[in-house]
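seq:
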Amino acid sequence: MTLLIVAMRAGSQDAVANAPAHAAAQATLGVTRYVSTTGVDSGTCTTRFSACRTLQYAVDQATAGDAIRVAVGIYAGVTNRSGGNQIARIPVSVTIAGGYDPRNFDSAPDPTLYPVTLLPGGAGRGLVIANGAVVTVRDLDQRWQRRSGRW
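struct:
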């Protein structure tokens, strides 16, 4: 399943309908970046051997049109950007796809075998789309958690 997410602008009732027709295609023309629970937040994250640890760091390195491949795991750390805590604040048009084997990011994603879960818990939000970015998200499971249990 592919979900095209567009940031809502003040006064906009139908941001998806107003998104550029070529926006989804643009999100696959840039550099591919990699995220893994065993990665390190340094460098450009452009090989599986130099994968980022957090989705936010990968987004911070990204430019419009980049693809971000996320390996199996639970991503729970939130960061503060623009006064809010979230797994990632995304101000550029990118494609984010989960379901990858961290040993072979070039193989087809398999979200059943390699599930990716975003778990901000009570500490913040999941993905926040900003600056009118057009973001395509595939094969990520975002869960919410209260102190009293999951919801």
